[in-house]
Amino acid sequence: MHSVNVEIEVDLPDGVTVRGYERHRGAHVFEVDFDLPARFACPKCRHEDAANIRLKNEVLPVRDLDLFGQPTFWVYQPSLHQCPRCRQRTQLPTPFTRPRAAYTYRFEEWVLELLVGLSVEEVARRLGVSAEMVEGILDHRLQEQPTIPVEAKITSIGMDELSLKKRHKLYVTVMSDLSDPEHPRVLAVVKGRDREAAEKCLALLTPEQRAAVRSHRTDMSAVYPQVCSEQLPNSQLVLDRFHVAKHLGEMVDRVRKKHGVSS
To answer: Does residue 44 sit in the same domain as residue 119?
Structure first.
């Protein structure tokens, strides 16, 4: 058996380079490096000086987008800055992951994209991660609601409820941009599944954006369709196959439980 060299094209964020690659237990592992700042302000004493950088004696892995349908991890060596004034040591931020996160920013966005139409447990099974990780990503979006750009062109939205079962049945309302069906994008995550939650989601859109929406897809409850019809003057309700199948599945489950029939 002879070996061949295979070239893999990987999309990398600006300032990130690949230093090495290996296969490990069915996963792709990339050793990455990234640009470091020339200057740094100490968060303790606020003194800014030339970056005094030391590498930590450890390697951290973070989950990234799948490659060829297989898990991909980036590993990197964290960097520390030691303040010349107060001697405080601070780990420098990385451009591709948030502090103490076990995944990249774009993996986080991918998880949110998959949640448009799938439950927390289904996304976790598909990606081979824990439901707690998926809930953590959803919870972070709930806590730090990003601003929707006023120039964003949104012609179709979806509004769904999700339950975070590990958090004592905490329900959230998820509003997504369905303008590009191949790449749905989560716009907002708001606590609750009532009229107030739906109104908070739509309030994040400008009046012009709400007027530009031509269709909305929601579950089959009474709340979301009613709020959307009131606040999206030019939009029509579309019942897609996912919501119909979901509703039928819930009805079947109720009948099974009522009559004690196992699946």
So the answer is: no
Is residue 197 predicted with pLDDT exceeding 90? yes
- Which residues in the chain belong to E strands, given as ranges? 16-24, 27-34, 39-41, 48-50, 53-55, 60-67, 70-76, 79-82, 89-91, 156-164, 170-177, 185-191, 215-218, 236-237
Do 129 and 206 share a domain, yes or no? yes
How many domains in the chain?
2
Sequence-distant (6+) residues with CB within 8 A of 245 are none
CA–CA distances in Å: residue 152 to residues 3, 114, 146, 177: 48, 21, 13, 10
Whole-model pTM: value is 0.80
Q: Are 239 and 220 in contact (CB under 8 A)?
A: yes
Per-residue confidence band for 105, with pLDDT thresholds at 50, 70 and 90: very high
Q: Are residues 91 and 127 in the same domain?
A: no
Residues 67 and 146 in one domain: no
SS3 117: coil
